[in-house]
Amino acid sequence: MSYYEASEFLKTKTNIRPKTAVVLGSGLSELIDMAEVDTIIPYSEIPGFPELNNTYHKCRSVFGKLSGKDILIMQGRIHYYEGFSMQELVFPIRMMKYLGIETVILTNASGAINTDFVPGDLVMIEDHIKLGFDSPLRGKNPDEFGERFFDMSNAYTSGLKELALSAAEKENINLKTGVYGYMTGPQFETPAEIRMLRIAGADIVGMSTVPEVIAACHCGIKVLGLSGVSNMAAGIENGGFNTEVIENAEPVFSDKVKRLIERIICDIN
Ligand code: HPA
């Protein structure tokens, strides 16, 4: 895939040269208003970007300034359950590598397994458990990005975790920490699956982010993962898929994500 071509194309469209990127997941796409927007390029115009149909009209790359720094915001992501391959899912990450991105903040919405959490909470992802056996690195290793085998012990970069915790303190945001259990969806989990995830050590569950973390770790991009709790997970009191709960929770965590990201960008190197 033509990650290089994609990045060169973007460089001809904007003078913004970001070192940090933010991926806005479910319930968070409106956060684009936190940035001073310079250039908007729909994913569909980027050469080599996985083909999207018109339900993806909100999927755009936005170049601009945030807290005075150049930033790339990816508004909307694609998911495995939509039929994309894992390799396709990580196209944006590899394109970012060629763009010179050093740090990516990945955001998502999740269900809470940990009963200390409630919808509306914001959780910093400490680590993950990946269920489902596919990997974006399956197949011939793309040597230009990294080695065949690589370490994932610091995939969620420790320095960024410290930075996020101190940024949260400054902003008076109650930032929880937890392990993210990755399920490929689109069906929500069964109560038995949630019990299994809880025993395995997962605090939250969701259907995104992990393939991107793997690709970022492979190519040496630092990762911070932030997850907004949109609902309690299946089998937990008032848990499972509930549109009303999810819609009420989104504005609560999205406000926190916005303030936290602004502060983090301010504090970053
Ligand atoms: N399960 C999986 N993915 C999710 C959930 C959930 O409960 N909530 C938001 N994304």
Element layout with pairings:
Elements: H1 3-13, E1 20-24, E2 36-42, E3 60-66, E4 69-75, H2 86-89, H3 91-99, E5 103-112, E6 122-130, H4 158-170, E7 175-182, H5 191-200, E8 204-206, H6 210-219, E9 222-232, H7 243-267
Parallel strand pairs: 1-4, 1-5, 5-9, 6-7, 7-8
Antiparallel strand pairs: 2-3, 3-4, 5-8, 6-9
Helix pairs in contact: 1-3, 3-6, 4-7
**CATH fold node name:** Rossmann fold
The ligands bound in this entry are: hypoxanthine
What's the architecture, going by CATH? 3-Layer(aba) Sandwich
Q: Secondary-structure element sequence?
A: HEEEEHHEEHEHEHEH
> In terms of per-residue confidence, which ranges show pLDDT below 50 for 5 or more consecutive residues?
none
Biggest sheet features:
5 strands, mixed, barrel
- Total strand segments: 9
Summed up, the domain count is 1
* Relevant CATH superfamily: Nucleoside phosphorylase domain
CATH class annotation: Alpha Beta
Helix share, percent: 25-40%
Structural class: alpha/beta
What's the helix count? 7
- Tertiary shape: globular
Strand proportion: 15-25%
**Average pLDDT value?**
94
